[in-house]
Amino acid sequence: MRIGIIGKLSGKEAFQVARELTNWLKNKDVEVYVEEELGRGIEHPNLTPKVKLPELIDLVLVLGGDGTLLDAARIVGSYGIPIIGVNLGGLGFLTEFTLDELYPMMEQILKGEYNFVERSMLRALVYRDGIAVADYSVLNDAVINRGALARIIDLETYVNGEYVTTFRADGIIFSTPTGSTAHSLSAGGPIVYPTLPVTIITPICPHTLTNRPLVISNEADIRVTLLTETTDVALTLDGQIGFALKVGDTVGVKKSDSLIKLIKSPYRDYFTLLKTKLKWGGGGR
Questions:
Q1: Of 24, 39, 155, 202, which has the maximum CB count within 10 A?
Q2: Is 211 part of a structural domain of the chain?
Q3: Which of 66, 141, 238, 249 is catalytic?
Q4: Is 154 considered catalytic here?
Q5: DSSP letter assigned to residue 147
Q6: Given this model, what pLDDT does residue 69 score?
Q7: pLDDT confidence of 124, banded at 50, 70, 90?
Q8: Which contacts of 145-149 are long-range, i.e. CB under 8 A and separated by 24 or more positions?
Q9: How far is CA 181 from CA 93, 129, 139, 194, 199, in A?
């Protein structure tokens, strides 16, 4: 088996874990590839640019938080490579495994005794004067949002060619079920079971209070045109990449052809994860 390691670079913990894990895997005759920046200080690793890893590996291990995993997902999404996420601190809806669970789980993986779940992605395109000028795939969400000093914006919205409404709002979130517990949730969107074939449309602080979140089929073609003349509106992808929008630009959102394979934790189910991360009370039997 060939395993790649990607990690959070802003702290020391990922470097230490990567070093220890690389040595452990080598002792088990596993071919290990470590992203270049994370590989500093590791003795004789296969240091590889992150974007090159998918061509070399069978599985990728992510050390960090959900942001690190989202970055990895955009890189490996079109390759169908399974991802195991190890949480080194934050909330961790996607990085399900703890450090204590890492090595027992790796033993199972090396024996081929693991399961994964498939998570859908969204593809977001920006059309300017009828020409596609940007094209992204995201695991969580694509968000049109105004800057701090920009006024409220008008977003003319169509689904499958049918006019929905013109949202007057601070912005709009297009979310996968996986991303329903991220930005969309903070804007009042619903929690959606992560394997359902849907897309969530959540307006951000809408001027009309009856404009509520919509849940539609992920087979639908969504088109949103910016009608407001402003210099401070952007399309943000998974909260990590930004693209400046101009008046008249249309953002198209639809299901991506890529699917993310997340290795499933045998230690907890989705609802246990929700209860833990959102601190839900209650006993149950």
A1: 202
A2: yes
A3: 66
A4: no
A5: -
A6: 92
A7: very high
A8: 145/170, 145/171, 145/204, 145/233, 145/234, 145/236, 146/170, 146/171, 146/230, 146/232, 146/233, 147/232, 147/233, 147/234, 148/232, 149/232
A9: 8, 34, 12, 9, 13
